[in-house]
Specification:
The chain has about 80 residues and is mainly alpha-helical. It has a domain of about 45 residues. It starts with a helix and ends with a helix.
């Protein structure tokens, strides 16, 4: 039995990178969707106007979630094919 160590290392690195990317994109989407809150609570800039408007942040959140769906869909495609 032979183990292709190079391929195993490639799989490990890619899976780690994709895992970090998916978690980061979901986190950015949650931050973007928090723009819908009418009164943000706490923080050093409480009451300050956000640097980007709520519709733009919602669109960014939607793009992040769309990217996550594409990554997961491609992963499922690779597994099934």
């Amino acid at each position: 039995m032979n183990i292709a160590w190079g391929s195993l290392l490639t799989v490990c690195v890619v899976s780690l990178a994709v895992g970090v990317a998916v978690v980061s994109l979901v986190a950015f989407a949650l931050v973007g969707l928090s723009a819908r809150a009418t009164q943000p609570a706490g923080g050093p800039d409480d009451g300050a106007a956000p640097p980007v408007s709520a519709p733009v942040r919602t669109a960014i959140a939607a793009l992040c979630l769309l990217a996550v769906a594409a990554i997961v869909g491609y992963g499922l495609y690779v597994i099934v094919a």
